[in-house]
């Protein structure tokens, strides 16, 4: 078994602060293909810290996004093209370079793309070859079999999710009867009493340019705010899901939503009929007790008819769900359903006395900022425990510890013969005045990296 996948990326000191004192950092020789890091402050006698040999690779400030992509993401993309699920997390304090790594700030130069955009570009090129093969082999309904990327983008704040590709619509996070976590938007009341609750919107992208435009539109809606740590701080976890899809799969999933909406009024009527008949079969006595009503015979035939109608529509839902599985089985494309998940985690802040900064001074965080920070840190600690529990093959994985880990459960848990892969990229600042925050980031990665992978 191999160690968990943890990478470290040192950000450069901002060019506007060329004389900033820097942390002393030493990367040890490889041991079992892993690197150890030692850090200390430039002042003699100050505390120092050293990790175990747990890090896959350390990226220097001079390494750009292209170098990170080539080493961390590119080697894993064949797994996605085999239908597997792979997740990448950027962890670090505000201003350490998480968003720059995952999302990037240059959407034109491929060498400067964030990991998400670079991965989409790679997949789009590969899918062109798959689609050429579909046409060459003369598949019937080849337009339904054409492969593209389904993009879902949302951010998590507290116990709610916000759909970035659907006007920042607020969504609820719920665990369903199937044990899986579902993210659902607002309830729509349709004609005939139908009720539809849509999942997070999937935008189908049939070209790289489609993907880039959808990504840009979604990022414009992401919430950010000024904090005492960073002027443009991401106070939410941004989740970007890329899935290899075709039109047949998207249509099949849409049919499930429609059949579910048709079931709601029928199921409600079955419940109403049952309650109505049961209430008619009771009468209230003078002392307030309910006893059988001798003057009314419960109409079991009416109840049975309503239940039969409900069962009929439940079968429609079941058939629609089975058709989704049929699309996978009949597609002949092993890449269909392959997923890439990029998570730009909210900044990991530590508001305990002087731990926010060791040198220099910073404003104390506001009460609201402290409240947000506590929720964010709860999420991040829960994520660490889930990664460690999975890696060490524990019988119980604490997914329900936070909304973040509940949402990511489906990506961690591979189905059937498919496998999953996850990696954490620690973004760290070499500035001496951020020594405590950087040390906390590396300690987090050290704890994750000491586990054993599946």
TrEMBL record:
Cellular component, GO annotation: kinesin complex; microtubule
Gene3D superfamilies: Kinesin motor domain
Positions that bind ATP: 92-99
Lineage: Eukaryota, Fungi, Dikarya, Ascomycota, Pezizomycotina
Protein origin, superkingdom: Eukaryota
Record-annotated Kinesin motor domain positions: 3-451
InterPro entries: Kinesin-like_fam, Kinesin_motor_CS, Kinesin_motor_dom, Kinesin_motor_dom_sf, P-loop_NTPase
Family: Belongs to the TRAFAC class myosin-kinesin ATPase superfamily. Kinesin family.
Record keywords, A-Z: ATP-binding, Microtubule, Motor protein, Nucleotide-binding
Protein name stated in the entry: Kinesin-like protein
Coiled coil (UniProt feature): none
Pfam families, per database record: Kinesin (PF00225)
GO biological process, one term: microtubule-based movement
Signal peptide: none
GO terms for MF: ATP binding; ATP hydrolysis activity; microtubule binding; microtubule motor activity
